[in-house]
Amino acid sequence: MKRIGLVGGISWASTLDYYRLINEETNKHLGSLNFAECIIYSVNFEHFRKSNAAHDWDSTFRLLLAAALHLKDAGADLILLGANTAHIVAERIAEAIPLPLIDIRTATANAIKSYGIKKVGLLGTVFTMELDFYKDRISGYGIETSIPASKQEIDFIEDTLLHELGKGLIKADTKHEYIRIANKLIAEGAEGIILGCTEIPLLISQEDFTVPIFNTTQIHAHAAVEFALSN
Question: Would you place residue 231 in the very low, low, confident or very high pLDDT band (cuts 50, 70, 90)?
Fold first, then answer.
């Protein structure tokens, strides 16, 4: 099995999920007491947040590249960026480091395509929802994405991601509001919902909806294991 290198800490709460999912999926394939060879380099989320808030993507790139290089030097055979927003600079990271990078957008698009779905709602950080780096990758698979039309709803999601879910805080009223926003997208024609921030699955899940829900943390972790187990 190839050694998985995870750039985590973006945030620590979802990094816990990544580690659990990677090991559960590995054991599902290999059985017995087999688990993943996995190296985690956890960055300081505050540095990531500040760079993104300033739209200083060069600083974001340098932060994540340094982490990826640490993982390479430690013996990783492949790299995961443990956040959807981090994929703003994914192509630059992939070009700069001589290791395969498992792209969360590609893995998610393949998962959606397997359902034959043509339109999905997208929940995530303000950058994932409003910038083109995510939607353009998904649209390349013939899939349309929609986001909340209300700026107030987008700002609510961003604020709770930073100040609640990113700290591992789960609140019932926040969950209720996320479900309401997602159901509004479904009513407007979305055939499924992308949980396009790796913290969102800590709050809502498939059990809360009747349409397919795409947990990007799980999808990404499983794609990494599939690659790690391939020849």
Answer: confident
HSE-up of 46 (CA within 13 Å, CB side)? 0
Backbone angle region of 41, left / alpha / beta, with phi > 0 → left and psi within -120 to 50 → alpha: beta
What is the C-alpha to C-alpha distance for residues 52 and 68, in angstroms, rounded to an integer? 18
> 89 near 101, Cβ under 8 Å?
no
User: Taking the CB of residue 49, how many other CB atoms lie within 10 A of it?
Assistant: 17
* pTM confidence score: 0.97
Closest CA to 144 of 126, 161, 169, 119: 119
C-beta separation of 1 from 39 below 8 A? no
Q: What is the dihedral of CA 82, 208, 141, 108, to 10 degrees?
A: 20
